[in-house]
Design a protein that fits this description.
10 strands, five-stranded antiparallel β-sheet, 7 helices, alpha+beta
């Protein structure tokens, strides 16, 4: 998440501080840590506002267990010295001292192209997430491969039929709705497997899917049900997808457990095409109030923040 700021105006700073605080509260494990993080955000942004001679930029990255906030500006630069002022009655000069005591880490540097950069690791952790990785069920309620659309993937009607029937069967199999996320994960495992089979048939793919083919499969199947998924990053061991529209519409905000559908479908496909399994982190979710979704799929390695990840095992080799 990135923001551009005009340091000649105070309104954007207030708006960005509020937006960052709201985002952290949506995903943090407790509000007390968010309060400390908001102080750090406020102090670093105020520092840029006072000293920058031009625009400033704010970046928030949450890939590790704790997020990192970075503020860039075009000011004269500074020496990072987070001490209290020599004069105890001095007005100001305590901001970096406060930040240094609240942040997990604090670093600063003068940029070669001019200006300064200061980064702080915020003392906030995501809510821990429980993994559900059920074996795939094969039942007649799933869409037939012949129902695939000419452009690829299954239509919304076939998908929703499978969702409702499979969810009902999964809930019944677990003796009630106590584990809503586990039930949705089961449906995702079943439907995702069939969607991968349709992709393989349409593209005539044999053997393991390459990372770029996994992405193609994800986007193809999500667009078929009116999702707005698109690729943000791709390398050999990490796929990052964004999403602008949930297939379930506004209803997903009343049932955030449905996000497990995306996690289970994506994680199951990734794990079936990797030796070391896969992990999925739902970094941002429309269901909990984020403006879009950000989904990170890890291939053959542990997630940067294991506590927030859903783990998926590779299938055992056939005997």
């Amino acid at each position: 998440m990135d923001w551009y700021l005009d340091t000649s105006r105070t309104e954007p700073f207030s708006e960005v501080r509020e937006e960052i605080g709201t985002y952290l509260r949506r995903h943090a494990s407790d509000d007390r840590s968010v309060a400390d993080a908001e102080v750090i955000v406020s102090e670093l942004m105020a520092n840029a506002m006072r000293h920058a001679t031009g625009p400033a930029w704010v970046s928030l990255v949450w890939r590790a267990p704790e997020p990192e906030l970075t503020v860039y500006d075009l000011g004269p630069g500074f020496t990072l010295d987070p001490r209290l002022p020599d004069d105890p009655l001095a007005v100001g000069g305590r901001g970096l001292y406060i930040v240094n005591h609240l942040a997990r880490s604090l670093t600063g540097a003068v940029r070669e192209t001019g200006g300064a950069r200061i980064s702080a690791t915020l003392p906030v952790r995501r809510k821990e997430s429980q993994t559900f990785d059920p074996p795939r069920h094969r039942v007649t309620a799933l869409p037939h491969l012949e129902e695939a659309q000419p452009g690829g993937g299954f239509g919304k009607e076939a998908f929703l039929r499978a969702l409702v029937v499979q969810l009902a069967q999964a809930v019944e199999a677990t003796h009630g709705p106590a584990a809503a996320e586990a039930a949705v994960a089961q449906v995702g495992a079943d439907v995702g497997g069939q969607m991968e089979a349709e992709y393989r048939q349409a593209e005539e793919v044999v053997g393991r899917l390459r990372p770029e083919q996994i992405v193609d499969c994800y986007i193809r199947l999500k667009h078929a049900i009116d999702g707005g998924f698109h690729l943000l990053e791709l390398d050999d061991d990490r796929i990052v997808l964004g999403n602008t529209a949930c297939p379930f519409g506004d209803a997903v905000k009343r049932a955030p457990a449905l996000c497990r559908m995306t996690s289970s479908v994506f994680g199951g496909i990734a794990a079936r095409n990797a030796d070391g399994g896969a992990a999925v982190v739902l970094e941002e979710r429309i269901a909990v109030g984020d403006p879009g979704c950000r989904v990170v799929v890890y291939l053959d390695r542990v997630a940067d923040d294991p506590a927030a990840a859903h783990q998926y095992r590779s299938p055992a080799p056939a005997e």
